Amino acid sequence: MADDKTTPEGAAQPGTTGEGNQPEAAVAPEAKTGGPERQSRGGNRGGGRDNRGGGRDNRGGGRGRGGRGGRDNDGGEELIEKLVHINRVSKTVKGGKRFGFAALVVVGDGKGRAGFGKGKAREVPEAITKATAAAKKSMVRVPLREGRTLHHDGTGHFGAGNVTVRSAPPGTGIIAGGPMRAVFESLGVSDVVTKSNGTANPYNMIRATFAALADQSSPKAVSQRRGKKVTDLLARAGGSAAEVAADAAAVTE
Question: How far apart are CA 201 and CA 192, in angstroms?
Fold first, then answer.
């Protein structure tokens, strides 16, 4: 016979509480881990770090610049950038040598305005940025015939650099090499013939090319300076009256 074990009055049954013999409430798993508030606070803190890291990535991406020879928006104006030359330079100091980079950049809008600039820095991207900023400040306007070629032939000199530029008929293309090609591409010229005699130093070639472009003048500018009509100037170059009138009407600058 099994012994009948009686529970004394007032004693709590296993799995029950002392008040009203209610079942004991299960311990919430959050209580062991510090509660939902601590978890959410830790999760937000971790997410904040992730967001902060993403902000750094975005900030780093904002510093990047366009590819070489790409287009850059500067105050709503679309500019063409051409990287002409990069040179490694060094400076001798007390502790040894400091190495850096020098960049030569040509900038133009493709509509008759162009400029060049140079910049030096410890890193290549920073040198290119400095050169681009200097080129934008030194942009000059060059009159173009029909928006595709020069109005007349010209020569330019700088140091040992000696260049010759000539106007060309449609379909000729840009017959130029190296630094001179970058200048005419950024300027918006599609037909031109050039020749460089002398040094092959890109700095001197660029300066000589801009010296030749600075001497360019349009029939409209000459007529205003001399107090005559454009048709009078073009008539001296030969051609019928109809051709002269058509050429005069095509002159826009």
Answer: 21
